[in-house]
Amino acid sequence: MTRRREAELAALFETASELAGMRELDAVLRSIVRRARTLLGTDVSYLSMNDPAGTYMRVTDGSFSPLFQKVRLGLGEGLGGLVAQTARPYATPDYFADARFNHTRPIDSAVRDEGLAAILGVPLKLDSKVIGVLYAADRTSREFPPEEVALLQSLADHAAIAIDTASLFATIQSHNEAMKRAEEAHDRLTDLVLRGGSSAEVAAAVGELLGGPVEVLETVPSLAVRANGRAVLLGDVWVCAVLAGSELLGGIALSGRPGLTDADRRVFERSAAVTALLLLLRRTVAEAENKVRGELITDILDGRDAAELLARGRRVGVELSDPHVVLVADGNLSGATHYASVHRGLAGSRGRDVVLALPSASTQVAREVAKALDATVGACGPVEGPAAIAEAYEEARRCLKALRQLGREKDAATMADLGFVGVLLGDRANVSGYVRSVLGPVLDYDAERGTELVHTLEVYFRCGANLSRAKAELHLHVNTVTQRLDRVTSLLGDWQSPDRVLEVQLALRLLRLQGP
Questions:
Q1: CA-to-CA distance for 342 and 319, rounded, in angstroms?
Q2: pLDDT at residue 1 above 70?
Q3: SS3 annotation, 487-499
Q4: Which distant-in-sequence residues (6+ apart) come within 8 Å of 228 by Cβ?
Q5: What is the C-alpha to C-alpha distance for residues 165 and 172, in angstroms, rounded to an integer?
Q6: How far is CA 195 from CA 191, 203, 206, 279, 504, in A?
Q7: Which of 23, 131, 334, 456 is the most exposed place for a label (fewest CB within 10 A)?
Q8: Alpha-carbon span 458 to 455, nearest angstrom
Q9: Which residue, among 283, 301, 422, has the nearest Cα to 353 in the 3D structure?
């Protein structure tokens, strides 16, 4: 008996020494359960931990039943639930025959599936608080003498201290890791601010630190706004408003981390403040750059020194000697400024109109601007150099005026697009181009076949569109005149509609003014 007691004490000291050196909670729990099975020589040992609802299985040794390994006991249910509730050891040589316990179907099913008969359970206590239950059990009926109960309770007492130490160490380690992560976050966010990084870079850095994707939002729910810079959990997504004083600049959202610690939440909130700072810095820089660009377009239109203007353009990334399309619009200046900035152009105001000079070889950009600004846009170009831009502005301005007079709101056009109106209003009117755009197929037909369709048209209009008078002047049969006019229709389409007939007559007149 003495030797057995000495062996048990030696085993307890060895267990206490082993547990004292452990810092990882799961390793502590596995060691406790393994030692309990060894010291008492039972088939199975296991440990459950308490929570407000009862006690749940945490670690087993010698168990083979998945049902048993996941069993949960409410306070007062089964042997373990009674130990957890009363903080006293309980033992039974035959669990199913023992009426002292509140037998429930889930618990009895799990014990039966494991094939257990004799069970001993002792409380794991810290001061007066029960934190769990330690068990030793056999698959055959047996008694647990007082010395075995005392031995398992001694092991449980050592185990409770080891569990508390491991939990405390884990808390300290978690705190240290949080501090380390906070320091890393501080360093990375500070570096982003000093480098003038973007909000997307902040999102990427914070997402990497917190282990979840972070997205920059243009709009945020009102709940996040009312939280005034504090993170709120909406569903399983953390959202924090990005504020500059009372001004809402947007927000950031963190997914995949619903269980965010206080330290990580503070890192997330700080990233929102850094995002606000970067957005303000970027806006300030953009406003200063746009002001410079606006002053540059004004000075171009005022005809300042070309060499100086070219140099100033290069300083803001605009090469004025490259082809540019000049646009005059009735849209808002801020929208035009943003569009010009994105497309590496210039934008400013002139009276009530907005002026843009965009690097492009095609006036098709005018339609894109009209759509983007929801505006009416007159265009001219492409042109090269400050002086040409100033000249093109005047034509684009007259084009915008013509569009308004024609009722073509929210449309975009050049003088060439306006047909005869463009010819009449344009300083650099392309008369030959206009004539060909209207009469080209008829001119080519006459040239290739030696016909006189153009002459027939001139006589037809001179006779007031009267076929009888026209055939008399042409000395042709009326059917021949009709056939010629039908041929014109096949070449030009519906040229006798009110709008088209005016253009055809103007083109014929300009053709004669040009000479042979």
A1: 15
A2: no
A3: HHHHHHCCCCCHH
A4: 241, 243
A5: 10
A6: 6, 15, 16, 13, 63
A7: 334
A8: 5
A9: 301
Report how far residue 379's alpha carbon sits from residue 398's, in angstroms, rounded to the nearest whole number: 9
In this prediction, residue 287 has a pLDDT band, given cuts at 50, 70 and 90, of: low
Residue 415 CB contacts under 8 Å (≥ 6 apart), including other chains: 380, 395, 398, 399, 402, 421, 422, 423, 425, 426, 429
E strands, 389-440, are 412-413
For helices 431-449 and 478-492, what crossing angle results, to 10°? Answer: 130
Q: In what order do the strands lie in the sheet with 324-329?
A: 346-350, 353-359, 324-329, 377-383, 412-413
Element (H, E) at 450: none
Sheet architecture: strand order including 247-255: 214-217, 247-255, 237-244, 232-234
Q: What is the mean pLDDT of residues 57-61?
A: 94
Residue type at position 416: A
Distance CA 507, CA 516 (A): 14
Backbone phi and psi for residue 129, each to the nearest 5 degrees, phi listed first: -95, 130
Phi (first) and psi of residue 377, to 5 degrees: -135, 125
Q: Are 172 and 30 in contact (CB under 8 A)?
A: no
How far apart CA 357 and CA 337 sit, in angstroms, is 11
Check: CB of residue 418 under 8 Å from CB of residue 407: no
Report whether pLDDT(20) > 50.
Answer: no
DSSP state of 260: -
Band of residue 214 on the pLDDT scale cut at 50, 70, 90? confident
Residue type, 482: T
pTM above 0.70, yes or no: no
Rounded CA separation 189/267 (Å)? 10
Residue 217, phi-psi category: left (phi > 0), alpha (psi -120 to 50), beta (remainder): beta
For residue 206, CA distances in Å to 214, 275, 287, 415 come to 7, 11, 28, 53
- Contact between 72 and 56 (Cβ < 8 Å): yes
As given in the structure block, the two tokens for residue 173 are 């380690």
Nearest to 51 by CA among 111, 105, 132: 132
Cβ neighbourhood burial of 239 (10 Å; 0-12, 13-18, 19+): buried
226-266 pLDDT tens trace:
777 788 888 888 888 888 777 778 888 888 887 777 777 88
Distances (CA, A) of 465 to 123, 318, 494: 115, 55, 15
Q: What is the DSSP string of 273-327?
A: HHHHHHHHHHHHHHHHHHHHHHHHHHHHHTT--HHHHHHHHHHTT--TTS-EEEE
Query: How far is it, in rounded angstroms, from Cα 226 to Cα 400?
Result: 46
Contacts of 88 (CB under 8 A, 6+ apart): 123
